[in-house]
Amino acid sequence: MKRGLRLTNKKQKNTEQAPPPQPKATRTSRYAPAPQAVPDVADAETDELDELDEAATGWQQTTIKMAGFTRLVTVVVWILVVAGPLLAFLAVVVAGSSRATPTTRTGQAQTQPSATGPSGFAELYVAAYLAAGEGTEEDLLPYYSELVSLSNKPNSRHATSVTTVAAEQIEKGYWAVTVAARITAKDKDGKATDQGLHYFRVAVQVAGTPAAGGAAEPGSLSPSGKSTASARTTRSAKPVVSPKPSGSAATTAPAAPAALYAATSLPAEVNAPASASHGGLAYGSDRSARNEPVSDTVSRFFAAYLTGQGELDRYISPGLQVAPIVPAPYRSTLITGLRDDQQNPSGTDTDDTVPADGTTRRVLVSVSATTGGQDYLLTYALTLSTRDGRWEVAALESAPALAAGQAGPVHNNVSPAPAATSDPSADSSTDPVED
């Protein structure tokens, strides 16, 4: 018993003298597993705080922080690399917009008045005027705001076609437009006959920008929302809206006042414009009667081009984009005239050989094309060139070539010219049209 008690006391003594060792914090203690036995909760919390403080100043924790900072810098750098082109594009767009603004304003200031709107309005007005008659005077109100009294029967005549032949700006926003109208009229028995072309001059007042034929500056709107340009006020009780050509500005667009058109009088019938003859062309005498390589190439070219007979590619130069007309409009062709720009005296050029490669010649060709048993005359301007000992069509010209020094048509009036008027289109013609 005494021995056993003595052993027990010794164990207790050893326990009291040797407290359990505390876990030591190491440089990697933050990531080490927690101690298995904790004698006291308060001591454990204190030890954990000590471990964290000690680990925060260690080499391992500093490396982690540096690695995180490196990743952050890398992400920022990649963001800048990806966003760089976008930022550059936005900078170019902003710079271009700032430079384009003065150019746009300058272009607006230099806009020339357009006759398209007044001409279209005048054509509609003349067509309505010719068809109007007693009882249908209100059909003219959208064009001419004053009520008129007509005595002719409605639709006793009408225009089968109307075309503007002259437009003169009398002053800003005020135009004199001459319209040619082919008229069909009915006699007393109701039989319609063709009365030929008649010419009418119409005075048109315009409210709008120069693009519409007016004098208002873009954006010049009054507080009421209407253009500051003057416009006639209708006297009729019926609301009148002037017809506007396609493409005119909307009434709600603040940057462009609405284009309004109004005639200041009824149409006035006038003479046809003066006739004229064209200036000299850059072609010599007719060579169609000569059987030479040029005539042969031209003849075969038009046979393939207009009738589909033969291969067109054999008679054109490489690179020329010309294809036969499909479907073929004619059954046969015949060259009736051939003039070129070679100014050789008539009858002295008998050379039928092909000159050296690269030689060019411009020709004016008259073609008689047959279809449906009828012959129709056509005229074409061509440029020919030589290659491999033969002539080829190098170009199908848009218009015949003028001679040097020809600046415009030549006046060709047979009767004496009448007294001068404000409208140059009112000159006389050889056959004045009677209404």
Element layout with pairings:
Blueprint: H1 2-17, H2 41-56, H3 59-109, H4 116-131, E1 157-171, E2 174-186, E3 192-207, E4 260-263, E5 268-270, E6 276-277, H5 293-307, E7 332-340, E8 360-371, E9 374-387, E10 390-396, E11 410-411
Antiparallel strand pairs: 1-2, 2-3, 3-4, 3-5, 6-11, 7-8, 8-9, 9-10
Query: What does the oligomeric state look like here?
Result: single chain
One letter per element, helices H and strands E, the order comes to HHHHEEEEEEHEEEEE
Give the strand content.
15-25%
> Which shape, going by the Cα principal axes?
flat
> Distance N terminus to C terminus?
159 Å
Helix content: 25-40%
Mean pLDDT: 75
Uncertain regions spanning at least 5 consecutive residues: 1-15, 28-32, 54-60, 100-109, 221-241, 245-251, 345-350, 414-435
- Number of strand segments: 11
- Give the biggest beta sheet: 5 strands, antiparallel
Radius of gyration from CA coordinates: 47 Å
Question: What's the short version?
Answer:
This protein is 26% helix and 22% strand. It is α+β, with helices and mostly antiparallel strands. Residues 1-15, 28-32, 54-60, 100-109, 221-241, 245-251, 345-350 and 414-435 have low confidence and may be disordered.
